[in-house]
Amino acid sequence: MGRAIIVSEQDGRADARLTDLDEGLLDDLGTVVEVAYSDLNYKDALAVTGRPGVVRRHPLIAGIDVVGRVVESDDPRFGAGAWLVLTGGGLSETRHGGYATRAHVDAALALPLPDGLTPARAAALGTAGYTAALAVDRLAADGVTPDDGPILVTGATGGVGSIALLLLAAAGFEAHALTGRRSDYEDYLRRLGAAAVVDREDLSGEGRPLQRATWAGVVDTVGGEVLANAIARTRPAGVVAACGLAGSPQLPTTVLPFILRGVTLAGIDSVWAPLEARERAWARLARDIDGAVLDGLTSAVGLDHVIPTAEDLLAGRTHGRIRVDVSGG
Structure pTM? Predict the structure, then answer.
């Protein structure tokens, strides 16, 4: 019998616990996977600590990412023994996720393990790395080039931010990293490729609708006033890729940056992105991420340490990527 972190509803509140896995709980979705790895993202941390807004079905196995070997599949792309990578697609929201030793998944949005990545490194990248790649792909698709000026990355010590810095540096961009922990992490961020480190206080609080044009693009994981001020400081025809709400889901801004500077606010949906976008994003990750550097910013935990580590993540006591070794503990 395997194990799983299952989120249940107790007295009207969500309660997550590591327990034995009854495979009868799993849905029949066409593909059976022996899960080797998952990872810990912001949404995962919300789910396993009982915060609302992620899990919409109870009981539900948490974990928005799955990396494992296929046991059987109705998808001809996946033979028995093949490695499969699935991020998002309703996992840990309405479908059972990757914090279990076995998963039943719909493989329509899954990918074979990308060439050049080990299973452990694919899991270390996970949704965060894939989301960062989607954001950088969007900047490029909208015509932003290194010659246009620097790119701001907010929440730069987090999973998405860390990988975004690596990808931007690899693509030749001048990346600026925004963090509220500059004294602790400036050296770390510069090692990831940041050309400048910006204190979060510089973009906090209510700012003017239009400010000094500084950045040609933004990868934002924070939302709220930070995002509003970043938009106000984006250069004419710049692109802001919004992919997170670690600070706030609110956006207290005006239309002025959009109608006076032609700024584009581009939403990044990593949950339901189509297969083609996923393939492009993972190809960028496999090509541009140095495995040794990724290993250096990745820590690993077993299933038994996911919940306390999630509390640390939400409290701002972690940085980089956190891989979950599902089959190892």
Answer: 0.95
